[in-house]
Amino acid sequence: MRALDLWEVKLLRVLFGLRELPARILRRGEARQKMDFESLCEMGFILLDEAPGQEFVLGIVAKFWSLAPAPIAVEPEDFRALHKPGHCKATWNFHFESTEDGTRVTTKTRVEMGSKLAGVLFRAYWFFVAPFSGVIRLAILRHLRTKVETSQNQD
User: Fold this and answer.
1) Taking phi first (over 0 means left), then psi (-120 to 50 degrees means alpha), and beta for anything else, what does residue 53 get?
2) Would you give per-residue pLDDT tens digits along the chain (155 residues)?
3) Are the CB atoms for 59 and 91 separated by under 8 Å?
């Protein structure tokens, strides 16, 4: 999963490109060239936990509703206790489970609001973003399945 480049999926390039457009304009940043595990960490995600081959959990702290959200740097061991009013903490996991048919991959996102205002702003943001988030999640899982099946067929 760490080597998986999500930028290979055109839909993800389009959706993330649109999401990052305000930040690129405001900061005059460069367009992303790939989106793998390392790139996610460069975007502000941190690895919170990992059971190799079974699950890993990423975390991020930010004002997701901002035009150019700037994630807060936090050490993994400090993430759980961090309370940053006006911000939200999000975790994103990928869980891999062996089944008779192969491997089942599930993913969940959890968000904790740092204050009532952050909750109001996040819910307004999520009202517009949720459908795209679901599409992104499905695209990631499909891409992962394709990569796994392709590698199995080559073995």
Assistant:
1) left
2) 667 788 888 888 888 878 777 777 776 556 667 777 888 888 889 999 999 878 889 999 999 998 878 899 999 999 999 999 999 999 999 888 888 887 788 889 999 999 999 999 999 999 999 988 888 888 888 888 777 777 766 76
3) yes
Domain locations in the chain as residue ranges: 6-154
DSSP state string for 66-127: SSS--PPP--HHHHTT---TT-EEEEEEEEEEEETTEEEEEEEEEEEESSHHHHHHHHHHHH
Residue 1 structure tokens: 């999963």
Q: Residue 43: exposed, middle, or buried by beta-carbon count in 10 A (0-12, 13-18, 19+)?
A: middle
Radius of gyration of the chain (CA): 16
Separation CA 23–CA 33 (nearest Å): 16
